[in-house]
Amino acid sequence: KVEQQVKAFGQAAKLTIDKGGRTSFALLLHLNRTPPNKPVTRILAPWRDLESWYAEAVVLAREVSRVINSNPWFLGFLRGLDVCGDERLYPTWAAAPFFKIAREASLNVAARLGRPELALRATAHAGEEYRRNTEGIRRIHELFDFKIVQQDDRLGHGLALFDFGGARSGP
Question: What is the average pLDDT across 15-38?
Fold first, then answer.
């Protein structure tokens, strides 16, 4: 069923691109730091699965790259990439390959289509969950330091930039 929906979205997006118009719907691909069905009430060893999460991010990015290269019309409705979820689990920099690989593929395909505006944009949620304000600020800084966000991208929330109280979330 999902495959049929994606195919239908793709056909609509292809028609839109072929006519040189703008899409009237869009999808955003989320790389979630929070594992499904695992409550994040207390984090004892936040990076214990970092290697596997990092590997999953790379696999997902390569799959996005493959799909974009074999189906350029996909860029007509996949409009962006996002990293979200509890940032205390995995550092923001660990998402860098996800953004780099997928964005690079989208830039190349958009250039081949002569439609640079179709290149993927990013939203990175950072500075939301932290034990101390400096930790939240560091997560935001990582977005720029590791070139996860670029011009025209979006910082999701960034609450640490405006929190002068010191702590936002529990241990």
Answer: 68
Stretch 13-34: mean pLDDT, rounded? 68
Long-range contacts of 55-64 (CB under 8 A, 24+ apart): 57/31, 57/94, 57/95, 57/97, 57/98, 58/97, 58/98, 58/101, 60/29, 60/31, 60/98, 61/97, 61/98, 61/99, 61/100, 61/101, 61/102, 62/101, 64/29, 64/101, 64/102, 64/105
**Tokens linked to 64:** 């996005």
pTM of the predicted protein model = 0.77
Q: What whole-number distance in Å separates Cα of residue 92 and Cα of residue 123?
A: 12
pLDDT tens digit string along 99-119? 999 999 999 999 999 999 999
